[in-house]
């Protein structure tokens, strides 16, 4: 028997989607910037954004105020979600970002700063009943920012189809590399095994 309806990851993502839409007032095609390490919340938030047709933009924990400001202004993000450690960097620039309406912190309730919502509280209050948005393959889904090596980082938007196609291309290109590495590892293990015995 699989997980109950309340325990499945898909259903939890629906609860998170409800927290973003009903709890934070986000609507279709709004932008949410997510600056989190690879924690479960990161995955649930991205799934929730897909379900609600909210464009998500992931950012590294290495971003600082100037980088966050640039991303908030360029994307016209309505919401930012991050950790307590990143709150001071966001607060330094938030007043200059007129589109930013909601700031959510992923952490203990005691780590929630004034003017910030707590992720856990929002999700706990949210319902499991959520009707997923009906999207087209051409609808925008995610926003990435370039590295910014030759100037300020630029936005690169992916649709529901282009994001998946990008993974197929990456898998094809890396397939030969992975096979080569696997074969080298086998040869190395064989050499080590022969030398030891």
TrEMBL record:
It is an enzyme of class 6 (ligase). It catalyses: a medium-chain fatty acid + ATP + CoA = a medium-chain fatty acyl-CoA + AMP + diphosphate. This is medium-chain acyl-CoA ligase. Keywords: ATP-binding, Ligase, Nucleotide-binding. GO terms for biological process: acyl-CoA metabolic process; fatty acid biosynthetic process. Its EC number is 6.2.1.2. PROSITE patterns: AMP_BINDING.
């Amino acid at each position: 028997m699989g997980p109950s309806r309340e325990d499945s990851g898909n259903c939890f993502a629906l609860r998170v989607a409800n927290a973003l839409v009903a709890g934070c007032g986000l609507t279709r095609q709004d932008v949410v910037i997510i600056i989190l390490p690879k924690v479960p919340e990161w995955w649930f938030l991205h799934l929730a954004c897909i379900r609600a047709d909210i464009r998500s933009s992931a950012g590294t924990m290495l971003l600082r105020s100037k980088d966050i400001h640039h991303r908030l202004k360029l994307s016209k993000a309505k919401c930012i979600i991050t950790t307590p450690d990143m709150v001071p960097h966001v607060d330094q620039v938030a007043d200059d970002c007129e589109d930013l309406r909601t700031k959510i912190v992923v952490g203990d309730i005691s780590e929630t700063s004034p003017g910030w919502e707590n992720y856990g509280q929002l999700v706990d209050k949210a319902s499991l009943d959520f009707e997923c948005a009906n999207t087209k393959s051409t609808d925008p889904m995610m926003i990435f920012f370039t590295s910014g090596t030759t100037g300020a980082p630029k936005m690169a938007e992916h649709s529901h189809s282009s994001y998946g196609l990008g993974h197929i291309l990456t898998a094809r290109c890396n397939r030969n590399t992975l096979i080569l590495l696997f074969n080298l590892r086998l040869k190395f293990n064989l050499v080590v095994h022969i030398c030891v015995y």
